[in-house]
Amino acid sequence: MFGRKARQDQARQADEQLMLACLPRLRRYARALVGDRNAADDLVQDTLERGWQKLDSWQRGGDMRPWLFAIMHNLHADQRRKPVLPTVELDQPEAMSAYVMPADRGLMLDLEAALRLLPEEQREIILLVVLEEMRYEEVAATLGIPVGTVMSRLSRGRERLRLLLDGERGARPDSGALAATALKVVK
Predict the structure, then answer these.
(1) Which among 126, 131, 133, 127 is positioned nearest to 151, based on CA atoms?
(2) Predicted confidence (pLDDT) per residue in 57-88, tens digit
(3) Potential cystine with 157: which of 34, 77, 91, 122 (Cβ 3.0-4.6 Å)?
(4) What number of other Cβ atoms are within 10 A of residue 79's Cβ?
(5) 3-class DSSP state for residue 88?
(6) Closest by CA position to 113, among listed 186, 103, 143
């Protein structure tokens, strides 16, 4: 009996380490997905909490990352359905600076702003494929959609992003070319 308990504890610790190893990628994707650091941290925390509660449903030996991303996707979808009134704490200077777009922030601001203008389903796919470097099959499993849908949404999202960034090209000639290079990731 003692050997069994020790093996279970050891497996739990290994699972915990795998989950912690996914943390930086979860945070990066959540931040890109929701655009707000605090909301992203809350989403990651909720994802890890749900993952820990449902750890028995994860297939040991497989990649934990797509499983956690699927949990995050479902939580984010649930959160989007809830009506929320946006609030801003005016006492915090960083909250006010979010409304001011300095010209020296360059392409990242342009790309981030363009991503925000994409429909949610296209933005999710682009972020998972380009930012998280997931294969189409992993994205399909994560979002619970067919691979063909992933490819279609990715294609439409890339094209729409190119069009949005072309509008910025007059202000910053290098932004469209650099963004187009970033979008040519093929899996």
Answers:
(1) 126
(2) 888 877 889 999 999 999 998 888 877 666 66
(3) 122
(4) 14
(5) coil
(6) 103
Could you read off the pLDDT of 135-175 as tens digits, one per residue?
A: 999 999 999 999 999 999 999 999 998 888 887 544 444 44
Give me the residue label for tokens 């934990």: 64
Q: What is the token pair recorded at 183?
A: 């979008």
Expressed in angstroms, the distance from the first to the final Cα of the chain is 47
Cα(135)–Cα(140) distance, integer angstroms: 9
Residue 100 CA to residue 19 CA, distance in Å, equals 36
Name all contacts of 153-158 with Cβ < 8 Å and 24+ positions apart. 153/121, 153/122, 153/125, 154/122, 154/125, 154/126, 154/129, 156/122, 157/118, 157/119, 157/122, 157/123, 157/125, 157/126, 158/126, 158/183
